[in-house]
Specification:
Layout: H1 2-27, E1 46-51, E2 57-61, E3 71-74, E4 81-84, E5 89-94, E6 101-106, E7 113-119, E8 127-131, E9 134-145, E10 151-152, E11 154-157, E12 160-167, E13 173-183, E14 202-206
Antiparallel strand pairs: 1-6, 2-5, 3-4, 3-13, 6-13, 7-12, 7-14, 8-9, 9-10, 9-13, 11-12
Length: about 210
């Protein structure tokens, strides 16, 4: 009986040993998983003009010197145009068409800082509105983002300005630009001739 018991114990030991060996072999099995990695760069920015910069219908008499020229300043937030007489005079005849420049930013990455560059010198000088030799100059842009308070654009050089860091919400952003209009010194105290004075300027938005 003791011998039999011994044999049974030995068999049990061998069986147990086999189970442990099998378990050890099972735990050594490995699986490999391949995981993708990627990143996307969003370079999309869409700019859509809503309104031009329009100083309305006026009558103006230029001053003899640059520093004393009468001006009209458009507030980008309120859209109100304020004339200021100096040695010359400016009178707003019809304010119906007065608007700050306005454009929408869309498709940009949300809540990421954007930089705005305003260039009033497409020909290398200040933005000049010329009509038969009479000239108005547009300078000193200000801007409003999503109807926020007016902010002075910072001069970078000759009539080039930066709006600093803007941010497009998930729905985009609305930007309005106001500025100052004044006759140039070349007018020498004369009444500005009738007609439409027109020009263009550029706005650049980038990451």
């Amino acid at each position: 009986m003791k011998k039999l018991n011994f044999k049974m114990n030995k068999i049990a030991a061998l069986v147990a040993s086999g189970v442990l060996a099998s378990a050890a072999m099972t735990s050594a099995k490995a699986e490999t998983l391949i995981i993708d990695a990627q990143v996307e760069i969003n370079e999309n920015i869409t700019l859509t003009e809503v309104n031009p910069l329009n100083f309305g219908m006026i009558i103006a008499t230029a001053a003899p010197t640059v520093g004393d020229q009468p001006t009209i300043i458009i507030n980008p937030q309120s859209g109100i145009a304020t004339p200021t007489d100096r040695d010359g005079t400016i009178l707003i005849v019809d304010a119906a068409d007065i608007t700050p420049a306005e454009f929408n930013i869309s498709d940009a990455a949300p809540n990421v800082p954007l930089t705005m560059i305003i260039s009033f010198r497409p020909t290398g000088t200040a933005l000049e509105l010329n009509n038969a030799g009479d000239v108005f100059a547009i300078t000193a842009p200000t801007f409003s983002v999503n109807n926020g308070g007016p902010v002075d654009a910072v001069a970078l050089g000759n009539e080039v300005y930066t709006g600093g860091a803007l941010s497009a919400n998930p729905g985009g952003a609305n930007v309005k630009i106001g500025a100052t209009l004044a006759p140039t010194a070349a007018m020498d105290g004369r009444r500005m001739g009738g007609g439409i004075y027109a020009g263009t300027f550029s706005v650049e938005i980038n990451y």
